[in-house]
Amino acid sequence: MAACVEQQSDKFEAARNRMVKIQIQNRGVTNSAVLDAMRKVPRHLFVPDEYQSEAYNDYPLPIGYGQTISQPFIVAYMTEAVRPSGNMKALEIGTGSGYQAAVLAELVKEVYTIEIVPELAAESAGRFKKMKYENISGKYGDGYQGWPEHAPFDIIVVTAAADQIPQPLIDQLAENGRLVIPVGPPAAIQELILITKKNGKPVERRLTYVRFVPFKRL
Ligand code: SAH
Fold first, then answer.
1. How far apart are CA 22 and CA 27, in angstroms?
2. Which residues contact 123 (CB under 8 A, 6 or more apart)?
3. Which residue in the list 9, 32, 70, 97 is annotated as catalytic?
4. DSSP-assigned letters across all residues of 122-148
5. 89-93 and 153-158 as β-strands: parallel, antiparallel, unpaired?
6. Pocket around ligand 1: residues whose beta carbon is below 6 Å from it?
7. Which is it for strands 110-115 and 190-198: parallel, antiparallel or unpaired?
8. How far apart are alpha carbons 27 and 16 in whole angstroms?
9. Residues 9-22: what's their mean pLDDT?
């Protein structure tokens, strides 16, 4: 594991611990490494200054450009669903604030993340650098195509809702790898789908209903 999980002390520590207990553990997330990562990553540093005091509340927040940082529970739930472990390589589509990538970076060896809004790609890259997340590589682009140079991925997390699962992402998933993606129409309720690749074929499981910002194309 590239980043070691240990408690950090800051004025939001109590709020962060409360968030994990009430919003995440009480709703059934049990993976202790995931819970530790959620206790560690300083979510308030991933939201605009004016929302810092709300960073540990039970809802998504605006991050500019019409985009949002997901509700903390959803981040934990999706992260648990893809069963991360220390030697893995993960791809995220939809970097946004960089928060989900940072949570993954606490749990796996390497994280690759792609963002289609150039300003958000630049801002999150600045955060990763400042916070010394050396195992995250981010780039600007259309995540539909994945990142073939670094494939195959053990884990793929898509944080924008698509009408269908992009075939390049299924192709870039390793054998036994897990992909989680919200599927459904924009501005409506979507279904969170978990794909596991078995004998080269995607096996699909429906997890829950969610509401994400739309998957865009360049
Ligand atoms: N994971 C983010 C959540 C961001 S919301 C976080 O932790 O903050 C979803 C993001 O997906 C938005 O920033 C949006 O711009 C981006 N996005 C939408 N379509 C995309 C695409 N085709 N490729 C890459 N990013 C995309």
1. 8
2. 97, 98
3. 70
4. HHHHHHHHHTT-TTEEEEES-GGG--G
5. parallel
6. 67-70, 93-94, 96-97, 99-100, 114-117, 120, 142-144, 159-160, 213, 215-217
7. unpaired
8. 16
9. 95
Which tokens hold the place of 135?
A: 């195992």
Place of tokens 């596991």: 196
Global pTM exceeds 0.85: yes
Residue nearest to atom 4 of ligand 1 (CA): 96
**Is-contact 73 58, C-beta < 8 A?**
yes
**Which DSSP state fits 54?**
G
Does the annotation count 85 as an active-site position? no
Distance of CA 177 to the CA centre of its chain: 16
**Residue bearing tokens 């553990």:** 25
Q: How far is the CA of 6 from the centre of ligand 1 (A)?
A: 28
State the architecture of 13-210 in CATH terms.
3-Layer(aba) Sandwich (3.40)
- Please check the confidence at residue 1 and state whether its pLDDT lies above 50: no
Distance of CA 120 from the midpoint of ligand 1 (Å): 9
40's enclosing H/E stretch is helix 32-40
Q: What is the distance between the alpha carbons of residues 163 and 185, in angstroms, rounded to a whole number?
A: 6
94 alpha carbon – ligand 1 mean position (Å)? 3
pLDDT of res. 187? 83
**Beta-carbon contacts of residue 201 (< 8 Å; ≥ 6 apart):** none
